[in-house]
């Protein structure tokens, strides 16, 4: 097969490309330039898509003996990922930009271009397993559960999964680094990227305020309705947040307060006690099913964050809506997040589908 290997400049994508070559595929490496003004250096594990990363990807491609190109996706990345991220926060929702990037950039824009150029598949360094059963792609958790990325890939359509390759799905991270060293790849010990790639200093609130400005509002107690303080914008908060609330006086019971909900129109941030954080029901929309949508109530395991936030549940779909009743309450569940449904058997490793959280109960 003709395979386009997406090479970020990290160890995972380099080894994924190497394995595609070793499997006998005709491989071409490509690095996506996602920033119009990339920095020249990263700071440890912060940031990505820098000039340094593109150079690391090129060196890895040279060692593998494959052609290498840099494709400029900066404009589309800004429109589809960055602006969507800002808009979701402005609307009081909590987005996951990695999910959006995979959906809109790596497996829509990149895959579309690859198919147009005659490639059969795109290979990436994601930790997830992919197989085809009766013509239907099945996405599963990776062998290394600590690195599993099936959550951020669960929004891909069956058509996109059918042209995807995840060569690292059966490996542990330690094995990948060891293989990179054996192959003489200089990125063998390069730190993984953390945080949001387009906010390399990790200060999301400052980034959002630079885009959205200030929209003052009130922090209101859920039980009493009392105004506990003021803030400069709902975009500075997420559901479940405890620190940095700016509450002017301690709660009557002396216990910490958490963000329970956000109302962007009035600018109200409602806070309450830890007991009020638990969510037992989720209403979601825009579902994606790799196979046939489940008929009737379906037992599953749901996940609401890239790492953690799991609960046994019963899900039922009605066209474009999915109603989920949780067997165990979850905290920090917010509109805008993606909920992924896994099959309950075998530790819930098979992705049944995903949807965008619209409301919680």
From TrEMBL:
<keyword id="KW-0694">RNA-binding</keyword>
<feature type="binding site">
    <location>
        <position position="32"/>
    </location>
    <ligand>
        <name>ATP</name>
    </ligand>
</feature>
<protein>
    <recommendedName>
        <fullName>tRNA-specific 2-thiouridylase MnmA</fullName>
        <ecNumber>2.8.1.13</ecNumber>
    </recommendedName>
</protein>
<dbReference type="InterPro" id="IPR046884">
    <property type="entry name" value="MnmA-like_central"/>
</dbReference>
<dbReference type="InterPro" id="IPR046885">
    <property type="entry name" value="MnmA-like_C"/>
</dbReference>
<dbReference type="GO" id="GO:0005524">
    <property type="term" value="F:ATP binding"/>
</dbReference>
<dbReference type="Pfam" id="PF20259">
    <property type="entry name" value="tRNA_Me_trans_M"/>
</dbReference>
<dbReference type="GO" id="GO:0005737">
    <property type="term" value="C:cytoplasm"/>
</dbReference>
<comment type="similarity">
    <text>Belongs to the MnmA/TRMU family.</text>
</comment>
<feature type="site" description="Interaction with tRNA">
    <location>
        <position position="337"/>
    </location>
</feature>
<dbReference type="GO" id="GO:0002143">
    <property type="term" value="P:tRNA wobble position uridine thiolation"/>
</dbReference>
<keyword id="KW-0067">ATP-binding</keyword>
<keyword id="KW-0819">tRNA processing</keyword>
<feature type="binding site">
    <location>
        <position position="125"/>
    </location>
    <ligand>
        <name>ATP</name>
    </ligand>
</feature>
<dbReference type="GO" id="GO:0000049">
    <property type="term" value="F:tRNA binding"/>
</dbReference>
<keyword id="KW-0820">tRNA-binding</keyword>
<feature type="domain" description="tRNA-specific 2-thiouridylase MnmA-like C-terminal">
    <location>
        <begin position="280"/>
        <end position="357"/>
    </location>
</feature>
<dbReference type="Pfam" id="PF03054">
    <property type="entry name" value="tRNA_Me_trans"/>
</dbReference>
<keyword id="KW-0547">Nucleotide-binding</keyword>
<feature type="binding site">
    <location>
        <begin position="6"/>
        <end position="13"/>
    </location>
    <ligand>
        <name>ATP</name>
    </ligand>
</feature>
<keyword id="KW-0808">Transferase</keyword>
<comment type="function">
    <text>Catalyzes the 2-thiolation of uridine at the wobble position (U34) of tRNA, leading to the formation of s(2)U34.</text>
</comment>
<dbReference type="InterPro" id="IPR014729">
    <property type="entry name" value="Rossmann-like_a/b/a_fold"/>
</dbReference>
<dbReference type="InterPro" id="IPR023382">
    <property type="entry name" value="MnmA-like_central_sf"/>
</dbReference>
<dbReference type="InterPro" id="IPR004506">
    <property type="entry name" value="MnmA-like"/>
</dbReference>
<feature type="region of interest" description="Interaction with tRNA">
    <location>
        <begin position="147"/>
        <end position="149"/>
    </location>
</feature>
<dbReference type="GO" id="GO:0103016">
    <property type="term" value="F:tRNA-uridine 2-sulfurtransferase activity"/>
</dbReference>
<feature type="active site" description="Nucleophile">
    <location>
        <position position="101"/>
    </location>
</feature>
<feature type="site" description="Interaction with tRNA">
    <location>
        <position position="126"/>
    </location>
</feature>
<feature type="domain" description="tRNA-specific 2-thiouridylase MnmA-like central">
    <location>
        <begin position="205"/>
        <end position="272"/>
    </location>
</feature>
<keyword id="KW-1015">Disulfide bond</keyword>
<keyword id="KW-0963">Cytoplasm</keyword>
<feature type="active site" description="Cysteine persulfide intermediate">
    <location>
        <position position="197"/>
    </location>
</feature>
<dbReference type="Pfam" id="PF20258">
    <property type="entry name" value="tRNA_Me_trans_C"/>
</dbReference>
């Amino acid at each position: 097969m003709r395979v386009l290997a997406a090479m970020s400049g990290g160890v995972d994508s380099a080894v994924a490309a190497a394995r595609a070559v070793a499997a006998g595929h005709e491989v071409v490496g490509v690095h996506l330039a996602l920033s119009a003004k990339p920095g020249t250096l990263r700071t440890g594990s912060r940031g990505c898509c820098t000039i340094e990363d593109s150079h690391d990807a090129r060196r890895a491609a040279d060692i593998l003996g494959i052609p290498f190109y840099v494709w400029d996706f900066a404009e589309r990345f800004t429109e589809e990922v960055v602006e969507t991220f800002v808009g979701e926060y402005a609307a009081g929702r909590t987005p996951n930009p990695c999910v959006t990037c995979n959906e809109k950039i790596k497996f829509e824009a990149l895959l579309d271009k690859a198919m147009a150029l005659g490639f059969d598949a795109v290979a990436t360094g994601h930790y997830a397993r992919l197989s085809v059963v009766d013509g239907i792609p099945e996405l599963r958790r990776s062998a290394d559960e600590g690195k599993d990325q099936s959550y951020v890939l669960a929004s891909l359509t069956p058509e996109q999964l059918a042209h995807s390759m995840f060569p690292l799905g059966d490996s542990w991270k330690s094995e990948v680094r060891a293989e990179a060293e054996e192959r003489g790849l200089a990125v063998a010990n390069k730190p993984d990227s953390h945080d949001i790639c387009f906010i390399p200093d990790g200060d999301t609130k400052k980034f959002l305020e630079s885009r959205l400005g200030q929209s003052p509002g009130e922090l209101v107690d859920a039980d009493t309705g009392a105004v506990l303080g003021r803030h400069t914008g709902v975009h500075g908060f997420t559901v479940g947040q405890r620190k940095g609330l700016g509450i002017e006086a301690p709660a009557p019971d002396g216990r910490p307060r958490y963000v329970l909900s956000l109302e962007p129109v009035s600018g109200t941030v409602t806070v309450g006690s830890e007991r009020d954080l638990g969510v037992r029901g989720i209403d979601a929309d825009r579902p994606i099913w790799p196979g046939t949508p489940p008929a009737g109530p379906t037992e599953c395991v749901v996940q609401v964050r890239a790492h953690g936030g799991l609960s046994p549940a019963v899900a039922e779909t009605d066209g474009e809506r999915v109603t989920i009743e949780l067997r165990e309450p979850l905290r920090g569940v917010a509109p805008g997040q993606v909920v992924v449904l896994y099959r309950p058997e075998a530790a819930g490793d098979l992705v049944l589908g995903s949807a965008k959280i619209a409301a919680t109960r």
